[in-house]
Structure formats: structure tokens, C-alpha cells
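Entry 14. Structure prediction run on the chain below.
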Amino acid sequence: MSSIFETSGDSKIKSVCALVAASAFLIALTVGCSSKNYVRSQTAPIIQQTNELDAKTAADHRNIVDTDERAQAGISKAQSAANTANQDALAAGQSANTANQSAQEAVNRVDSLSGVVANLDNYKSISDVTVTFGFDKSVLTSSDKKQLDTMADGLANTRGYILAVTGGTDTVGDANYNYQLSQRRADAVVRYLAAKYNIPPHKFYLIGIGKDQQVATDSTAAGRAKNRRVEIKLMTNMGTEQPTTASAASPTGL
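Output returned:
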């Protein structure tokens, strides 16, 4: 009898142990599933935000690349346009220089009018003006240009005219240099009148006299200022009926 009871007790104990083990397994399984679900619920939003951030970063990168490409294309186009404009400006400048050089070469450069102009006695001076220059200068001032404008305004109504342009200097400096300086001063007058009033080159007769013909004493600063001059005479061979375009202007010292 005692054996039977012992056997029966062992079986119960084993059953209880099996039940406890099964319960523990179920509890562990339940706890494991709950933990996974919790982790999944917590990490899902983070993963979604990360994916969205990656997508936004990729979109921003594409936009930056597109903007950079457009900017580079714009810069390249602007540079090309600038290069073309520079080339056009250079070509225009070269054409202007060529035209100016041709015009200057076509101007009559003489030692005196009497030896060049036929029947010079038939030409009458109908107006004249004198402009003066600073020491060693050959640039027209605004005052000089106003005097030239006064004389040139009536040229359109004047027939058979020539312009005798005589450049002079004071006695300071080398004689050859002064001849060249007087020529540059006369050239400055010709360039201004030719460009503004479209006067043909053959109408000009340039005479560079350097310091050979003084209009005032060089012993004073005022006298030297008067000698640094260009005299422009408007002459015509069409008689005395031509309108007077300007009266003689008194030079002002610089």
C-alpha cells in the first residue's frame, strides 16, 4: 500500500511540475511578444522620421545640384555675351581708329597756305578764333570747345570754305619737340571739329609753326600762355556775301 501511495504522489508532483513549467513557458512567451510589440511601437515613428529625413535630404541635394547647374549655365552664357560684346567693342574701336587715322592722313598738312592753295588771294577770312593750351598740353578745354562751336555752327551755310589751322607754342623747350607739340594741338582742334560737325578732312589745312611765330612776348607768363595756341581761320572763295559765323575771339591765358 505504501508503494502505491508513493507512486501516486510522485505522479502528482510530476504533473504539478509539468503544469508549472508550461505556465512559465506561456508567461515567457507572452512577455516576449509584449516586449517585441512595445519595441516595435516605439521604433516605428523613429524609422518613419528617418526615412522622411533621408527623402528630404535627397530632394534638397537634387535641388542644390539643379540650382548650381542653372547658375553655371547662366554664368557661362553671361560670360559668352560679355566676350562677344568686348569683341564687338574692340572691333568698333579698331574701325574708329582706322577711320580717324585715315581722316588725319587725308588732312592737308602744309608749311604755309600760300604754297598750296591755288588762287589764295581769292580767299577771304570771314571769321577766326584762337584757343590756348596749358603748358605742354594738347587737350581742348570746355572753354576751347565753346569757342570752336561758335565758329562752326554756321558752316553748313558756308560754301567754298577752308579751315586754316595753325598751331603754336612758347619758346620753352626743344625746337623739334615744340613743332610736334604745335602739330598735336592743331590735330586736337581738327579731331573735335571733324567729329562733331562732320567736316571733310580735305577742308582742313594744318600748319605747325612751333615757336616760330610769336603773338606775345615770352618774357612773361601771360605772354607765354598766349603763344601756346591754335588759330583757326574760316576762309571762303565765294565772295563777301557769306554770313559771318563768329567774330574774332580773344585768347585767354591758361
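The chain has a mean pLDDT of 75.
Filed with the rest of this week's runs.
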